[in-house]
Here is the input.
Amino acid sequence: MSDTTSDREKIQSEIQAGKGRMEKSVESFQKNILQIRSSRASASMLDQIRAEYYGTMTPLSQIASITTPEPRMLLLTPYDANSLKDIEKALIKSDLGMNPQNDGNLIRLVLPELSMERRQELVKQLKLRLEDARVSLRNIRRDANEEIKKLKSSGISEDEIKTGQTEIQKATDLQIQKCEKIASEKEKSILTI
Here is the structure.
């Protein structure tokens, strides 16, 4: 006779591992879409940009203070005045579509007004990233279901396996809904004039 408590624990362990991976996937999606520009300036728009700092490519947030004094402006104040030119170069090379204004002490980035065509392009980018997140979550579901099926060889009943797979499906649906809600809010912020 197999111990049903340890069988449930094995399935729960697989379910928890799957849920943990799904949550990380949603967090990754959230960080990923922060870089898509909306009508308001946000320091997170610069998260992926790195500048050379004493021979090392360093994230801007580690070498400069980034503030948003106005809804469509970012101010970058370097911690080390010698890094100002390197920060400016990194911003020019980036695909932000903004011209940095260097006054010798700090850099201003003014977000240009978005045209409706550009807003629609950004929404398309957002939808592509949303679909990538859905695919990622479905892949995690598939992997978790396979791990649960493998437990059948250790004597776990079909009913326990079905219950575990149902729980994984519910978790998948919940995380996909979370991603869709996040994307919907981001889409509103992109389209808001």
Summary: The mean pLDDT is 87. The chain is about 60% helix and 15% strand. The beta strands are 50-53, 56-59, 64-70, 73-78, 101-102, 107-110.
